[in-house]
Amino acid sequence: AKYYLYDNYFDLPGALLCARVVDSLDQHDGQKKYDFWKDMVAAVQHNYKISAFKEDCGTYFPEVKNHPDKYLQRCPESVKKWLKQLKSAGKILLLITSSHSDYCRLLCEHIIGNNFEEYFDIVITNALKPGFFSHTPNQRPFRTLENDEEQEALLSLDKPGWYSQGNAIQLYELLKKMTGKLDPKVVYFGDSMHSDIFPARHYSNWETVFILEELLGDKVAVPEEGESEPLEKKGKYEVRLKALYCVSKQWGSFFVDRLPGLENAEETLVRTWSCKCISTYSTIAIPSLEAIADLPLDYRFTRFSSNRSATAGYYPSPPRAMLPNEESVTMK
């Protein structure tokens, strides 16, 4: 069977649209087989093609351009301060997005400010992830931009700046040149397992930080003050009270399935496929950048590892669903 994975919040409306198309076909035609995926692809291409922003094509870009405050949240000052601290500490900051340059500029100017380019050494747009990580320089060369139009392909990446398309291989060579190190360490932040975390780890062997919003509504209470670290070593999420435990009544937890035991046998918690991917391909998982922005730059996180518990890499705390409660359960 063929399937498509909607694995992040930007793509998620597509899943709802598919469901409503199925409901409509069931109601009016009573079909047993469906053949509408080609129409979904055509709709996506019409609304999100690279020229759609400039042409005011479709329904998505015109709406965001005309009402950015309705759809975009401002970047917290703590995160902007954190980015400046990283740069002041000598770190090279990259922004890599599959969005085209014109849309990226609109978002960043509204979210960060008109000076957003000052926060980053390298900006790469239309990166076409996950291919950015898996393709070779010949398959996916970097291109310069002029008035948001892609120009000639570059044989190599020689200096920091704003580029389009490209590949992780040539980017890493530039990072070697900029850092003066033969093996510079890259820490990559992303919110898509398919486009960010898996390919960055699998193809480039980068450290990966998975931004997982599900942690906002599925976390456990933090320890008492006397049982945890000093306040100056805490992120702002660590000192909050326990959040409401939000789990879909229809689908259950994002992290685990609960399997009842036979007769008097104990209940078993089975990690979902998504949960196993998190601990396999992520270095750590956090609910947002804001969750770590107030931490010292030398803060040492507990990372996911085959030698540690499956909950080790979640910051500031593991999902509540993954922790045994007062009932008798076994984690698998």
UniProtKB/TrEMBL annotation:
The entry's keywords: Acetylation, Hydrolase, Magnesium, Metal-binding
Coiled-coil region(s): none
Keyword Magnesium appears in the UniProt entry: yes
Molecular functions (GO terms): 5'-nucleotidase activity; metal ion binding
Record-linked Pfam families: 5_nucleotid
Domain of life: Eukaryota
Family statement drawn from the similarity comment of this UniProt entry: Belongs to the 5'(3')-deoxyribonucleotidase family.
Protein name: 5'-nucleotidase domain-containing protein 1
Organism: Eolophus roseicapilla
Organism lineage: Eukaryota, Metazoa, Chordata, Craniata, Vertebrata
Gene: Nt5dc1
